[in-house]
Specification:
Blueprint: E1 28-31, H1 38-41, E2 43-46, E3 52-54, H2 70-92, E4 101-110, E5 117-126, H3 132-145, H4 147-154
Helix pairs in contact: 2-3
Length: 180
């Protein structure tokens, strides 16, 4: 196994290009599994094969539990990104944050704005041994650079396409007009 090391702090350097420049991309496919429902019995597979898992609906949503769910996966991704970013910033500034942790609580619930569903995310950053003023400064700076925090606050560029086996790819549909 290769030696595990954090990424270089050069990832924090400003980019001055005129278009999005991807540094890494991946694809994950979810199929419905036994219940033909991604949340209830989905099977998650990454394009490189390193992520293979079954999803299960938690008991509070009427499922059996016993497996991970989309909210846990989102919380894990958000927490990992935020933890990595705060550690890179601390390293760049010569601040030791040994024993740090990031806890992300994600809730799936009813949205009063449209009567449908929404997510909330709350982040708790623990920086033992770091003076409070410096810890707050590091966390605020991390909020400005962590892609997940930026996505949660400002949205993300995305597109949803439909493909069937018997017809060609359809053009993107404006979701704001959907009545489903």
């Amino acid at each position: 196994m290769a030696k595990l090391t954090p990424p270089p702090t050069s990832l924090l350097d400003f980019y001055r290009g005129s278009a999005f420049e991807p540094l890494y991309a991946t694809s994950v496919t979810v199929t419905g599994g036994v219940a033909e429902h991604g949340r209830a019995s989905g099977i998650v597979s990454s394009d490189d094969g390193s992520l293979q898992m079954e999803l299960r609906l938690p008991p509070t949503l009427g499922g059996p539990g016993g497996g991970s769910n989309p909210e846990q996966l989102f919380a894990a991704a958000y927490g990992a990104c935020f933890h990595g970013a705060v550690n890179l910033l601390a390293k760049r500034h010569g601040i030791s944050i040994s024993g740090s942790s990031v806890e992300v609580t994600v809730a799936f619930g009813r949205d009063p704005a449209d009567g449908r569903h929404s997510l909330t995310a709350y982040v708790l950053v623990r920086l033992p041994g770091v003076e409070r003023h410096m810890a707050e400064h590091l966390v605020r700076a991390t909020e400005r650079i962590c892609p997940y925090t930026k996505m949660v606050r400002s949205g993300i560029e995305s597109a949803v396409r439909v493909e069937t086996l018997d017809e060609p790819l359809t053009p993107r549909i404006d979701a704001s007009r959907s009545t489903l």
